[in-house]
Design goal:
The protein is α+β, with helices and mostly antiparallel strands. It is 19% helix and 42% strand. It comes from Thiospirochaeta perfilievii.
Length: 187
């Protein structure tokens, strides 16, 4: 049976503002083999799946379009952001939803957590579902954010999964969590 490895040492390497890096020496508690491993340590993240009706009464996802430096592309995503040290996931989700879209709600719940890449990343992403949205103010974007909002009818979203604009694995993970919950409710 595979067991958790033992951390023998942990060395801080660098701080890149949105993540830190470490070298850890770990040893297998079964075989005794050991090695050096490199970790990327970002803060935890939150992603919000906001749902509201468009002017035709269709249930839609409220999504954001923004430029992403890593992929050098404009992507279609859900509002998301890093959890501040003093926040819990729902507080972060409400803050990011309001900042990126101008909407707020009291109907928000956690639907799951995933590790973006447990091979070398230490954080988790909490996915939240938000309903009964109310427009409360204009966007309040961070210094380097340029974000457009878009209502995407839910019945049309499945055609977009895996396309260039929704190639973000975190978005697809959030949709998978939501689809699984809907499937369970249908049983």
């Amino acid at each position: 049976m595979v067991k958790k490895w033992i951390t023998k040492s942990k060395e801080f390497l660098n701080d890149y503002r949105i993540f830190k890096t470490y070298r850890v020496k770990r040893e297998s508690s079964d075989s005794g083999i050991s090695g050096d491993f490199f970790l990327v340590d970002p803060p935890n993240w939150v992603m919000v799946i906001p749902v509201l009706n468009n002017s035709n009464g269709e249930e839609c996802f409220l999504m954001v379009k923004q430029y992403r430096h890593g992929s050098n592309s404009v992507t279609l995503e859900f509002p998301a952001g890093m959890v501040d040290n003093s926040e819990v996931a729902i507080e972060t989700g409400l803050r990011e939803l309001a900042e990126e879209t101008g909407y707020n709600t009291t109907n928000i719940k956690e639907i799951g957590n995933v590790n973006p890449n447990p091979a070398f990343m230490t954080n988790k992403i909490t996915t939240l579902l938000a309903r009964d949205l109310k427009r409360v103010w204009d966007q309040d974007l961070d210094e380097h954010e340029e974000i457009d909002t878009l209502l995407v009818p839910i019945k049309e979203f499945d055609k977009m999964i895996g396309e260039f604009t929704t190639s973000n694995s975190v978005v697809n993970s959030a949709i998978t969590l939501q689809a699984y919950l809907l499937y369970l409710k249908s049983l």
